[in-house]
């Protein structure tokens, strides 16, 4: 398992110039268009191209995308995103979950999220479970249309119940469980307007069933939080926009290379932070640190120390 490497990217906001019909203007999409007029220079095409090149250069085994791939939830965007993702990695080497910008308004599956089925591989309902060797990627859909000026998420009772079942089943199979979703799972990680409405319920599931790692996006800054688990704290790691140029609201583009390590039965993840450098006009290594994972079985509590936060 020490040879397995994952790439975590998020909030791509693929550049797309919208042309809204009059009907589409009377929706939440219009607010995003006004926002895009300010942000289109921030979500850089050059950084996007460099991101794809950097991912290939690091020969990761699997790419994890935690939402906000589009900006306006327009059919043309879903098609453009499908083409970009298909060029990035083989279908069985990429897993994605949607973000709030991918669900601004209801969109028929045939011209919306259904175009991304090859990367969710859902057989029934959310969550999905993708096994990559001894790792189980468990993808949640927290994205739903909301009122203007809100970017909240919700999982719902049914998805949470299926999540608990999946966590227990994959744990019993001795799989390392990585939960993926767009909205932060940790309490207080983001303001009310953008938070997960049933975050308390999600944390209760994690406290009962356990997981080894939670990955999310949605926040403008990188975060490392801890969520209570049955045998020790569960790390919750956020990567901010992987395509944004540094600006007063965004730290700037980065992605995380996650290398799984198993030494003497103690599992950890080596996190390499790849950050966009304006001066180098390229992604550079900003930090490398170990992230201890909680125990998966009954026994003495993990000696999971507070991991080093990103700088």
What would your notes on this structure say?
It contains 7 helices and 12 strands. Strands 3-2-1-10-11-12 form a 6-stranded mixed sheet. The chain has 311 residues and is an alpha/beta fold. Strand 6, helix 7 and strand 7 form a beta-alpha-beta unit. The radius of gyration is 18 Å and the shape is globular. The C terminus is likely disordered.
The termini sit apart by 27 Å
* Poorly predicted spans: 299-311
**Judging from the principal axes of the Cα atoms, what is the shape?**
globular
Number of strands: 12
Mean pLDDT: 88
Largest sheet: 6 strands, mixed
Please give the share of residues in helix.
Answer: 10-25%
Order of SSEs, N→C? EHHHEHEHEEHEHEEEEEE
Per DSSP, the total helix count is 7
Estimated structural class: alpha/beta
Rg, rounded, reads 18 Å
Q: What portion of residues belong to β-strands? A: 15-25%
In the sheet with the most strands, the strands line up as 3-2-1-10-11-12
Task: Please write out the topology.
Blueprint: E1 5-9, H1 22-25, H2 28-39, H3 45-57, E2 62-66, H4 75-88, E3 94-97, H5 117-120, E4 128-132, E5 135-139, H6 157-172, E6 176-180, H7 199-209, E7 213-216, E8 223-227, E9 234-238, E10 254-263, E11 266-277, E12 282-292
Features:
alpha/beta, 311 residues, disordered C terminus, single chain, six-stranded mixed β-sheet, globular
